[in-house]
Structures are given as structure tokens and as C-alpha cells.
Amino acid sequence: MGSVHSRLSAVIVTTPQAVALMDAMKCLSFTRAVNLPVLGLIENMSGYVCPCCGEISNIFSTGGGKEMARREGLNFLGSLPVDTELVTLLDAAGMGAADITADDQRVDERQERTFGLLERYRTTPSAKLFKNIVDHAIRTLPIVDHITDVDAV
Questions:
Q1: Domain count, the chain
Q2: Quick one: pLDDT at residue 65?
Q3: Which residues in 44-56 are b (16+ Cβ under 10 Å) and which e?
Q4: Calpha distance 147→153 (Å, rounded)
Q5: For the chain, which has fewer Cβ within 10 Å, the N-terminal or C-terminal residue?
Q6: Which of these, 73, 75, 71, 17, lies nearest to 44 by C-alpha position?
Q7: What is the pLDDT of residue 137?
Q8: Residue 35 domain-assigned?
Q9: Residue 134: inside a domain, yes or no?
Q10: pLDDT at 108
């Protein structure tokens, strides 16, 4: 079984604006200084999802993350727009989480809410985009010998 460090990777997340890209470059410099592999880069807040029709509009600058990934030789994992439907959904879910206790009934209610949240999330405009990003990141993971890991546990 390899060391923990050999199994660590980073994903750099930036917005397309110049100031955020400078911060992302600092993160990239850090990963390089400590020899931490980077799976790729995500451009967050790349556009805005219209809550009425679901169309993505580029009200902010866009493409800065993609250009940084190209320039720095990183995998570009994808772009995520601001999605008010997702924000509203997550805010509502967070409000209900504070009253959960160890009581079995409340735990069951929490699990029901969690699965309901997942189902509602899947209908948001950004869910498909995020799934594509996750799939791309997983494809870039190094092959790991799972059998040795299972036997070691």
C-alpha cells in the first residue's frame, strides 16, 4: 500500500475574472511546490442560468479558467454557471438540517429529506454540467489497485 501523499490530488476552482485567476495561479504554484498532482481546473460562476427558461447567459467574463488550463497544461474539467435554482434548493436544505437529533424518527426524516434533495438537485440546470465535470475528473484519476486496498483494510 502506497503512502497517503501518493493518493492525493487537487482540483483548482476559479472564476473567470482576472483577480480570481491570479489567486488560482497562487494555488497552482503551491501544488507544484509540494508536488501535488492537479486533476484539473473548474471555472465556477461562468455565466448565469435564467430561472425562467434555463438558458445560460454570460453576464460575467467567461473563458478565463479554460485559457489558464490551456496555458498551464491542466485538464479543463468544465464550467459551472451561477444557478439560482440550485442556490435556493441548498439554502432550503440547510435550514432543515439544524433540528436533526440522534432520535431515530428524526434520522429517518433527515434521510428522506436528503434523498428528496438529491432528486430535486438532479432537475437543476447545473446538475448535468456538474456530473460531466465529476466524470471528467474521475477519468483523470490514476488507476488504483483496489484489491490491495480492500485486503489491507
A1: 1
A2: 92
A3: ebbbbbeeeeeeb
A4: 10
A5: C
A6: 17
A7: 87
A8: yes
A9: yes
A10: 58
Share of the chain above pLDDT 70, in %: 74
Phi/psi for 52 (5° steps) reads -90, -45
pTM for this model (two decimals): 0.71
Q: For the chain, what is the mean pLDDT?
A: 78
Place of cell 434523498: 115
Q: Is residue 152 part of a domain?
A: no
Classify residue 125: in a domain, yes or no.
yes
CA distance 69 to 92: 34
Residue 123 lies in domain: 5-143
Rounded distance between C-alpha atoms, residue 116 and residue 110, angstroms: 10
pLDDT in tens, 72-111: 999 999 998 888 888 788 777 766 554 444 455 555 565 5
